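Deliverable D5.2: sample structural annotation.
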Amino acid sequence: MPPHPRPRMTLDRRRFLGLAGAGTAAAFSGGLLSACAPNGPRPGAGSAAGADRLNGLIPTFIPFDGPAPDLPGTDGAPDAFTSYPRAVDAITAPPGSGGSYTAMPPLWGPVPPGLGDNSHYDLVNRELGATVEFNFQDGNTIIDKMNAVIAGGDVADITMVPDWLINLIPQFNRAAGELFEDLTPFLAGDAVEPYPMLANLSSDAWKWGIFDEHLYGVPLPASPFAEWFLYRADLFEELDLPLPTSPEEFFELGEEINDPDGNRWAFGDFYRVMRQVFGAPREWRYTGGELVHQVETPEFAASVEFLRRVYDAGLVHPDIAGGGTNNKELLNSGRILVDQDATSAIIEAYQGVLPDNPDFRLALLPVFGSDGDDPDMHRNTPAEHCVFVRKGFEPEQVEEVLQILNYCAAPFGTEEYLTYRFGAEGEHFEYVDGAPQLTELGRQEVGNGYLFLSGRPSPIVESQYPDYVEPRSQWFNDAIRYSGDDPFEGIRIQRPNNYSSVETPTTDKVMDIIRGRREVRELEDVIAEWRRDGGDEGREFYQQVLQDHGRD
């Protein structure tokens, strides 16, 4: 293929990206994952499989006829329930046949008591007709832990791996075939019929469980968007602050909020969100027959320059400016009023703060762009994580594990969901304002272990919190209109190693510019280094993917 021209970047408009937090990560590239070519690529070379090949490997979609939402989502936005519906039975008999299995999901927070000391585990395992014993990983150190687990081959019977982490594990597509059971003969096409809750998972999400032309992972369908600006709605109202509609208004808002003498700063961090405001693509933009990476676009440069201006003005809390990660604590305590976080982080904050501060309110800022232009809202990959079954089981054991995963895929509005998510009414939870709330025992014993053993559609359901469901539904239905184009939609990709490995050092260099440790003019040098160290190799690879799939 002929050498691809290298677009030059100017500094009159800009934009940025980086590694994510809050239990999910977004890398420079946007994190598409792997499916090998039939004969397999050379190590580190990258690979891709298109929708036509993937379609023959995924389960037939059979929607579950559960309770109807009060506020249907549009164009892929989540459905919403303004009250908790009457739960229905989805599974009529215990799915297991007496087997015992280990499970390794991540956990953010305290580890619940183990088997023999946990009545919630006893309850769910009775319902399953099988025993699941959890070996939780600390979600904050999962990168190092999971790399070691995969490299050593020491996987549990059931292993959950976040989607973003799969992309950081070298040659995961090859490891999947060595460590995990090929689920294709058990689930592909109509073979999924014995597992109706798994059949209820979206076809796009299933494609993210395919590696090396085989189905290995059971997916959790992802929310359309990972994160946005969260703001203290209660303090905005108290201070009579306006909601911004442009970056300049956002900056002026920060100046109005900032009060270091009063121990209040405007902002935490928001570099992953600001690039969307300025309209940079999630990873690649295909225009005029050329692929241009997000870091090469003028929108990327614009967001970097804007963020540097924010930092220079002292609008970011010094803990965050110094590289700290206590954003949640600062936002919840009112020492910052706007931060970047997962769209789901509001519920986490409500659970921790509302008991002591009933007036506390968090909300998502309305979507806005720059200079009258639309933003580019970056869609998540279709699956948030995948669950894998250890290789080496007898077929009947694989089927039993899949029945366990099927039970744990029962969606909101079912009795099974209530059981694995909340436990027994009167013991682990009570209904408060029409929604289940954990009791003291429930808070001690109920974790997210079973929740992470499978996937399910994720509607907006937290009707127990005032001013939450309807505004959140409206936000998603609005934001979905600004989803940017992806030239590689529907193609499952394993990125070349050099291209993948250049992300973190490039992010670090960009952060040095944003935080004042390097000059803005050095951004051109940073991008040139990115091209040299793997970016151009990635461009050639992605250009070939477009040609191979007839999209050039």
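Annotation notes: The longest strand covers residues 336-342. Residues 523-548 form the longest helix (26 residues).
The annotation will be released with the project's public dataset once the embargo ends.
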